[in-house]
Task: inverse folding
C-alpha cells in the first residue's frame, strides 16, 4: 500500500494506525506491537502505520526495527521526524537510514518543547523548524522518491496563534509538503475551519485527521495539559465522565 497515493484518490478513505514504541511500558514486549501490526494487516482495513522516531525507553524498542518489520509484513510505515530531538544533520542522517530500509512516507514536525521530568527538563535542539527542513530536502528528493508530510494545528486558543499556524501551513505547502496531518483535537468546528482555509487558498494536498479515542484516564491527562498542544472541551469531558460513571454503576 502506498498511503500517499491512496490519499490522492478521491474515492479512497485510507486508514493509518498510530504505533508508539517509545511510550511502551517497561513490562511490554516488542511482540505486542508486532501483534498489533499483524492483526491490522489480517483485518485488511489498515495498511499504513504511523510511528514517531523518538528515543525508546528500552534498547529493544527501535522505530527503525519496527518500520522494517512493517515493510516485511506488507504494510506501509509513515515515520515522523521531530526537530526537537534532532538537529539538521541528525534528521538528514535518520532520513537516509529509513530511506535505505525502504521507508517512503515521512512526516516532518518541529516538535514539542520537552516536559519537566524527575531528571529535570531536556533542552530541545531546535536547530531549524519543519519549514526549513522541507527546504533542505530538495537535493535529497532528487535522488530518492519520498512523500513528505507536514502537521498543522487548527485548535489554537487565540486568533493571532491560529493565523500564524495557517500561514506556516501555506509555507510548508509552498516548499514541497505533499500531505497534511492535523494535530489531535476534539473541536469539529476547527476541523471545518481547516478544510475551508485550504479550499480558500487552493491547497489541494490531502488532509489527514488525527483521531484518538480517549478513555477517562487519558482525558484527565489532556485536561491537565500533560499532552502538549491538545485540549478537550468541557462538555465532552463531562459526557465522558458521565458514561464512565454509568458503566461503573453505583459505588458504595
Result:
Amino acid at each position: 500500500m502506498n498511503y500517499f497515493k491512496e490519499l490522492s484518490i478521491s474515492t479512497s478513505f485510507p486508514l493509518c494506525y498510530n504505533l508508539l514504541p517509545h511510550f511502551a511500558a517497561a513490562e511490554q514486549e516488542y511482540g505486542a506491537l508486532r501483534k498489533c501490526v499483524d492483526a491490522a494487516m489480517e483485518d485488511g482495513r489498515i495498511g499504513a502505520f504511523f510511528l514517531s522516531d523518538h528515543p525508546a525507553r528500552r534498547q529493544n524498542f527501535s522505530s527503525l526495527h519496527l518500520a522494517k518489520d512493517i515493510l516485511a509484513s506488507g504494510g506501509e510505515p509513515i515515520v515522523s521526524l521531530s526537530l526537537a530531538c534532532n538537529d539538521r544533520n541528525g534528521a538528514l542522517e535518520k532520513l537516509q537510514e529509513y530511506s535505505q530500509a525502504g521507508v517512503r512516507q515521512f512526516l516532518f514536525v518541529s516538535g514539542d518543547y520537552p516536559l519537566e521530568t524527575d531528571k529535570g527538563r531536556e533542552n530541545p535542539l531546535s536547530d531549524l523548524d519543519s519549514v526549513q527542513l522541507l527546504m533542505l530536502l530538495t537535493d535529497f528528493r532528487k535522488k530518492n522518491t519520498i512523500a513528505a508530510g507536514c502537521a498543522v494545528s487548527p485548535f489554537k486558543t487565540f486568533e493571532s496563534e491560529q493565523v500564524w499556524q495557517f500561514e506556516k501551513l501555506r509555507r510548508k505547502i509552498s516548499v514541497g509538503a505533499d500531505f497534511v496531518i492535523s494535530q489531535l483535537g476534539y473541536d469539529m468546528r476547527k476541523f471545518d475551519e481547516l478544510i475551508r482555509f485550504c479550499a480558500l487558498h487552493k491547497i489541494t494536498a490531502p488532509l489527514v485527521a488525527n483521531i484518538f479515542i480517549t478513555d477517562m484516564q487519558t482525558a484527565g491527562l489532556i485536561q491537565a495539559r500533560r499532552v502538549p498542544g491538545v485540549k478537550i472541551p468541557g462538555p465532552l469531558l463531562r459526557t465522558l465522565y458521565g458514561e464512565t460513571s454509568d458503566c461503573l454503576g453505583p459505588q458504595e
Observations:
- The first strand starts at residue 15 and ends at 19.
